[in-house]
Amino acid sequence: MLDPINCKIIKTLQDDARISFAELGKRVHLSAPAVAERVRKLEAAGVIRGYRADIDLDKLGYPIVALVQCRVFRAKEKQFKQLVLDSDEVIECYNVTGEQAFIVKVAAPTMPMLDDVLERFCTLSDTNTMVVLSKPRDRVLPGSFVDAAGR
């Protein structure tokens, strides 16, 4: 399923999900109907899970983004997961290996609001918070994705 053409399609859609099938076809040297069929198959297989807008949180009034490492207290994992699901400020959550069982990405409009979120997490876990200063790289696929598929 992931031949070099499909990999180029995926990479191109990652860069611009609004590209027309005609333009996408030009970039991968296929007709628009052929590209549309490949995209449909990638969607049906679950490789392409959806299309999303790239949102600037700062411009929406959420200038503070923090990564919170959480070491959940014994027997509190179920409650912690529910807290994550119930917290509107949480935009991503990863269950990871190591001492810090979860890494939670939080967006807040103010530092007091971030502090409020952290207080809720502290009832169920020890936390270590890192406020994001900048984001030098932001992509979903590794840069070598298209090259690796062409092996």
Q: Would you kindly provide a brief summary of this structure?
A:
With 151 residues, the chain is α+β, with helices and mostly antiparallel strands.
Beta content comes to 15-25%
State mean pLDDT (0 to 100 scale): 92
Oligomeric organization of the protein chains: single chain
Instruction: Give the termini distance in whole angstroms.
Output: 14 Å
CATH superfamily of the largest domain, by name, is Lrp/AsnC effector binding domain/regulation of amino acid metabolism (RAM) domain
Work out the helix count.
6
CA-based shape: elongated
| CATH architectural category of the largest domain | 2-Layer Sandwich
Order of the strands making up the biggest sheet: 2-3-1-4
Question: What is the radius of gyration?
Answer: 20 Å
Portion of residues within helices: 25-40%
Sketch the topology as an H/E string, one letter per element.
Answer: HHHEHEEHEH
Report on the architecture of this protein:
With 151 residues, the chain is α+β, with helices and mostly antiparallel strands. It has two domains: 4-53, Winged helix-like DNA-binding domain superfamily/Winged helix DNA-binding domain (Arc Repressor Mutant, subunit A); 64-131, Alpha-Beta Plaits. Helix content is 40%, strand content 19%. The chain contains six helices and four strands; from the N terminus they run αααβαββαβα. The protein has helices at residues 4-15, 21-28, 32-44, 77-86, 111-122, 145-149, and strands at 64-72, 90-95, 102-108, 125-131. A four-stranded antiparallel sheet has the order 2-3-1-4, covered by helices on one side. α2 (21-28) packs across α3 (32-44). The chain is elongated. 13% of the residues are buried.
